[in-house]
Queue: 4 jobs
Job 1
Amino acid sequence: MENLGETIKAHNRGILQGSQSEVKSPASCSCRNPNNCPLQGECLKKSVVHQATVKTNSEESTYIGLTENTFKQRYTGHKHSFRNKENATELSKLIWKLDRSSTPYTIEWTILKNASPCKIGSRSCDLCLTEKFYILTSERNNINKRREIVSKCRHRKKHLLSNVTT
C-alpha cells in the first residue's frame, strides 16, 4: 500500500510529464474539405481565445469564448448547441433566435490569442484572464454575459488532489 507522499509524487510526475510531452501537431487542419475550414486551415490550434462574429443584414454581434482543447473540438460543440437546446451558450441562444425569426446570418470565426491554461502551482489562468480581457475591451455588440467576467477558472480543478486516482 502506497503512502500519501508516494501518491502525491506519482500524481505530480504524471501531470508534469504530460505537460512536457505536449508537442505541437504538425498538421494545422483536419477538415475534410480545407476550403470549408472555419479558421482557414488553423482549426487544430490548442488553448485559444476565439471570437464568433454573427452578421445579419441589420446588425453584427460578437461572442468571445475559449477552449483548452483544439478549436475544432470547441467548434463541434458550438455546432451541436446550435442544433440542440442543451448546454446553451449565449452564441447558441442568438442563433436559435435568428432561426426562429428566419433571419439569414453568417458566422465568421477568428482566433484572438493563444494562451496557456492553468498550470500546477500558478495562481491564475492566462487562458481565462485573456478571455475576460477581450470580453471587457470588446467594442462591438458583445453578446457575452457579465457573469462570465466574474466566473472562476474551470481549468484549476484538474490539478486538485481530490482528482488523484490510485
Job 2
Amino acid sequence: MMLILNCITRPLCVPHKTFKYFRMAKLENFNLLLKGGSKDFVYKICHQSRQPVTSEDTLRLISSTLDCSMQETQNLLSDLRSFTDTLLASNVSSTSEILTSFPEGFHKSLANLLSKVFTELFPVWRANMAHGAVSLPRLESFDWAVSSDHATKQSVCSLDLHIREKDTMKIVNANLSKESLRSLVTGLKDIKEQISNLSNV
C-alpha cells in the first residue's frame, strides 16, 4: 500500500472505470428524488448540491417537496456532492459513462435521469471549479478493508479516500473488484511515471 501512498499525494485524477463500484448504502438517499415529480426539480436539487451554502429556506422547500426531514435533505445534498465529486475527478464526459457508475440494483429510471442531469450540469460545474478554485482537491489519507461479496462470491476492496477541498474534508468511497484494483494501481504507476518525467525535464 506504500506504492499507492507515494503515487497519490498529488491532486486526485484517476480513470473513470476505477470508481464504477459504489456502495448501494451511499446512494440510498437518492431515492428521495423519485418524489421530485419532474426533471426540472431534480435538476435544481443537483445544482444546489454543489453550492457553497444552502439556506434554511431552500432546505425547507426541498424537504416539503420531497416529504422528508431537513436532515434527510442535507444528507441527500451531501451524498450528491460526494458522488459528483468522484465523477468529476474521474473525468467522465458522457451520459453512458455516468450510467455505468451506478451499482446493480439501483433504480434504473432514476439512474437514467440523474445521468442526463449530470451530463448537462458537468460543463457548468467544471467551469465554476476552474473559476473559483484556489487549490485542487488533495488526498490527505485513505482507509481500506477487504470483504467477501456473497452475491458474486468475490473479494471486494472497500476504499475510503479522505479528500481536502479548500477548508472542507470529504470522504469518497468506492468498492473495487480485483480487476478494478489492478487498474487503479496500474493507473497510479503511470501517473507517478509521468510526474517523474516532468520533474526531470
Job 3
Amino acid sequence: NEPVDYIESINISSKILESCRSFSINEINSPDNILNSQENLMSTCFLNIDGNASNFDNFAVELSAIKHKFSFIGLTETNTDPENGNLYQLNGYSACYQSRFFCNIKNQVKSKGTGVCIYVKNSLNYFKIDDLSLCKNYIETLFIEITSFQDRTVIGVV
C-alpha cells in the first residue's frame, strides 16, 4: 500500500482557504451565485457555534433559509461529545463529532469552548482520519476523508 499524503491535501486546502470569504443569506440565495448554478459543486460552511445547547436551533433555522445545501458544515465549540451528537441533527446530513478535551488536572471534560464536528451531506461517503483528529489541551482537530470523489479529498475543522 502506498502511504497517504494527507499533508499535501492540507497544503492544497490551505491555499483554497485563502480565497474564502463570508456571504449573507441573500448573497448565497442570489441566482447569480455560483452555488446555485452548479449542482455538483463542493461547498463548505463553517461556524463557531459557541455551544450547541444554546445556539444549534437558531443555526438550523438560518441554514434552512439557504437554498443551497452545502457539502460539508464544520462547527467548532460545540461543547458536545459524539455520544450526544445525535441530539443535534441536520436534515440531509450525517454528523461526525470529535471527543471533547478531558482535563486531567480537574478530572473532568472541559465544558466550554471545546468540541468540533463536521456535518457531511448524506450523498457523500467518508471516514474519520484518526491520525489527524486530535483532542489536546492546546488544539482540537477533526479530519475526514471523502471516498465519494475520484481524487482524495480531506476536510477538516480545527
Job 4
Amino acid sequence: QISCNGASASRCGTRLSSSHFVGRGYHSIRLKAAGGPGVVSTFYLSNNGGLYDKTKILDNMFTDIAVEHNAWITVPFDVTSAVHEYGFELSDNFIAFKVDGIAYRTVDIRNHQDVRAAIWSSSLQEFISVWGKSASDPGEGIMEFRNAMGVLNGNRFPAVAEYIL
C-alpha cells in the first residue's frame, strides 16, 4: 500500500522502482487506485530514471526529447473501488495499453526508433507511485491532466492505493 496522508505534495505518496529492466512482452500490475481529487496512482515504464475522473486513465508515451503522445482511456468501472490489472504489451511495432487484459489503446511505434530501441534493448524500468497536489502546490504536467486531476484540498485522508506485485 502507498498512501497520501495530507493536503500537500510533501505529505502525499512516494515512488518505487523495480530493480530490473524489461523489454518485449506483457508487463502488468494489479492496482486499486487511491480515491479522491488531487491524488494520482501510477504504473509506468521509463528508460530515463525516472486523472481525476474515476473511470478515466491517462496513458502517455514520450518520444524523442519529451514529445508526448497522450490520450484518455475511459473504463467501465470506478478504478478506486476494486483491484484491476493494468499493463503494457510491448512489441516490435506497437504498444498496447491494457486494462484487465483488454487493449484500450494501441500505438504504432514503427516511426519512433527511440521507443523501439528501448524495447529491443530491454532498458525500460517499472515504476509505481502515488502523489498529489494541493491548490497551493505548483502545477505539474500537461494542462489537460492537471485540470482533470483536481487538488487535494477537501480530500479525505489517508487516500490509499493498493498495489499487488
